[in-house]
Amino acid sequence: MEIWINPACSKCRAATRLLDEEGASYTVRRYLDDPPTAAELRAVLERLSLEPWDITRTAEPEAKELGLKEWPREGAHRDRWIEALAAHPGLIQRPIVTADDGTAVVGRTDEAVREALGRGGK
Protein backbone atom coordinates (compact mmCIF):
# COMPACT_ATOMS: atom_id res chain seq x y z
CA MET A 1 0.00 0.00 0.00
CA GLU A 2 1.22 3.48 -0.85
CA ILE A 3 -0.18 6.90 -0.01
CA TRP A 4 0.57 10.04 -1.99
CA ILE A 5 0.58 12.99 0.37
CA ASN A 6 1.36 16.63 0.87
CA PRO A 7 2.45 16.85 4.53
CA ALA A 8 0.91 20.33 4.80
CA CYS A 9 -2.54 18.92 3.96
CA SER A 10 -4.85 18.15 6.89
CA LYS A 11 -6.66 15.42 4.89
CA CYS A 12 -3.30 13.74 4.22
CA ARG A 13 -2.33 13.89 7.89
CA ALA A 14 -5.71 12.46 8.88
CA ALA A 15 -5.33 9.62 6.37
CA THR A 16 -1.85 8.65 7.57
CA ARG A 17 -3.00 8.88 11.19
CA LEU A 18 -5.85 6.47 10.42
CA LEU A 19 -3.50 4.08 8.61
CA ASP A 20 -1.19 4.17 11.63
CA GLU A 21 -4.07 3.57 14.06
CA GLU A 22 -5.16 0.58 11.99
CA GLY A 23 -1.63 -0.83 11.91
CA ALA A 24 -1.46 -0.70 8.14
CA SER A 25 1.78 -1.35 6.31
CA TYR A 26 2.31 1.44 3.80
CA THR A 27 4.86 3.69 2.17
CA VAL A 28 4.57 7.45 1.90
CA ARG A 29 5.20 9.32 -1.31
CA ARG A 30 5.51 13.06 -0.94
CA TYR A 31 4.31 13.64 -4.46
CA LEU A 32 5.30 17.31 -4.52
CA ASP A 33 8.93 16.33 -3.85
CA ASP A 34 8.74 13.17 -5.97
CA PRO A 35 6.20 13.99 -8.70
CA PRO A 36 4.56 11.11 -10.53
CA THR A 37 5.38 10.66 -14.18
CA ALA A 38 2.68 10.69 -16.81
CA ALA A 39 2.91 6.87 -16.92
CA GLU A 40 2.46 6.64 -13.15
CA LEU A 41 -0.54 8.97 -13.34
CA ARG A 42 -2.10 6.81 -16.06
CA ALA A 43 -1.61 3.72 -13.88
CA VAL A 44 -3.13 5.40 -10.80
CA LEU A 45 -6.05 6.71 -12.84
CA GLU A 46 -6.72 3.18 -14.06
CA ARG A 47 -6.60 1.92 -10.47
CA LEU A 48 -8.96 4.71 -9.41
CA SER A 49 -11.27 4.16 -12.40
CA LEU A 50 -11.25 7.94 -12.86
CA GLU A 51 -10.25 10.45 -15.49
CA PRO A 52 -7.49 13.04 -14.92
CA TRP A 53 -9.99 15.88 -14.61
CA ASP A 54 -11.65 13.96 -11.77
CA ILE A 55 -8.50 14.27 -9.62
CA THR A 56 -7.54 17.81 -10.63
CA ARG A 57 -7.71 20.66 -8.13
CA THR A 58 -9.21 23.20 -10.53
CA ALA A 59 -9.64 25.93 -7.90
CA GLU A 60 -5.88 26.28 -7.36
CA PRO A 61 -4.24 29.48 -8.68
CA GLU A 62 -2.01 27.37 -10.94
CA ALA A 63 -5.07 25.71 -12.47
CA LYS A 64 -6.61 29.10 -13.11
CA GLU A 65 -3.39 30.28 -14.79
CA LEU A 66 -3.52 27.24 -17.08
CA GLY A 67 -7.23 27.75 -17.75
CA LEU A 68 -8.03 24.13 -16.78
CA LYS A 69 -11.72 24.80 -16.13
CA GLU A 70 -12.09 25.53 -19.84
CA TRP A 71 -10.23 22.44 -21.05
CA PRO A 72 -12.44 19.81 -22.70
CA ARG A 73 -13.16 16.82 -20.48
CA GLU A 74 -13.14 14.09 -23.08
CA GLY A 75 -10.90 11.25 -24.12
CA ALA A 76 -9.21 13.15 -26.93
CA HIS A 77 -7.81 15.59 -24.35
CA ARG A 78 -6.92 13.04 -21.66
CA ASP A 79 -3.17 13.12 -22.38
CA ARG A 80 -3.12 16.92 -22.15
CA TRP A 81 -4.64 16.71 -18.65
CA ILE A 82 -2.21 13.99 -17.57
CA GLU A 83 0.78 15.97 -18.82
CA ALA A 84 -0.47 19.03 -16.92
CA LEU A 85 -0.75 17.00 -13.70
CA ALA A 86 2.73 15.56 -14.21
CA ALA A 87 4.15 19.04 -14.77
CA HIS A 88 2.15 20.61 -11.92
CA PRO A 89 1.75 17.94 -9.19
CA GLY A 90 0.21 20.45 -6.80
CA LEU A 91 -2.94 20.15 -8.90
CA ILE A 92 -3.41 16.48 -8.00
CA GLN A 93 -6.20 15.75 -5.53
CA ARG A 94 -4.84 14.25 -2.34
CA PRO A 95 -4.28 11.93 -0.65
CA ILE A 96 -4.32 8.99 -3.03
CA VAL A 97 -4.12 5.57 -1.42
CA THR A 98 -3.21 2.55 -3.52
CA ALA A 99 -4.49 -0.73 -2.14
CA ASP A 100 -2.75 -4.08 -2.33
CA ASP A 101 -5.49 -5.50 -4.55
CA GLY A 102 -4.56 -3.16 -7.41
CA THR A 103 -7.23 -0.54 -6.79
CA ALA A 104 -6.88 2.96 -5.36
CA VAL A 105 -8.99 5.62 -3.66
CA VAL A 106 -8.80 9.35 -3.17
CA GLY A 107 -8.64 9.24 0.62
CA ARG A 108 -10.27 12.54 1.53
CA THR A 109 -12.51 10.86 4.10
CA ASP A 110 -11.94 8.23 6.78
CA GLU A 111 -14.45 6.02 4.93
CA ALA A 112 -12.39 6.12 1.73
CA VAL A 113 -9.19 5.25 3.60
CA ARG A 114 -10.99 2.39 5.36
CA GLU A 115 -12.21 1.20 1.96
CA ALA A 116 -8.56 0.92 0.83
CA LEU A 117 -7.71 -0.91 4.05
CA GLY A 118 -10.55 -3.34 3.39
CA ARG A 119 -8.98 -4.20 0.07
CA GLY A 120 -6.01 -5.87 1.65
CA GLY A 121 -4.20 -2.85 2.98
CA LYS A 122 -2.98 -4.32 6.27
Number of strands: 4
What distance separates the N and C termini? 8 Å
Return the string of H and E elements: EHEHHHEEH
Average pLDDT metric? 95
The helix count comes to: 5
Helix amount: 25-40%
Query: What class, by secondary structure content?
Result: alpha+beta
Which oligomerization state do the chains in this entry correspond to?
Answer: single chain
Shape, please? globular
Unreliable stretches covering 5 or more consecutive residues? none
Largest sheet: 4 strands, mixed
- Measured by DSSP, the beta-strand proportion falls in 5-15%
Q: Which strand order spans the largest sheet, edge to edge or round the barrel? A: 2-1-3-4
Determine Rg (CA atoms, Å): 14 Å
Protein name: Arsenate reductase family protein
InterPro entries: Arsenate_reductase (IPR006659), Arsenate_reductase-like (IPR006660), Thioredoxin-like_sf (IPR036249)
Family: Belongs to the ArsC family.
Pfam families: ArsC
Describe it.
The protein is of the alpha+beta class and 122 residues long. It has a domain at 1-31 and 94-122. It is built from 5 helices and 4 strands. α1 (10-21) crosses α5 (110-118). It is globular and about 40 Å long. Keywords: Oxidoreductase.
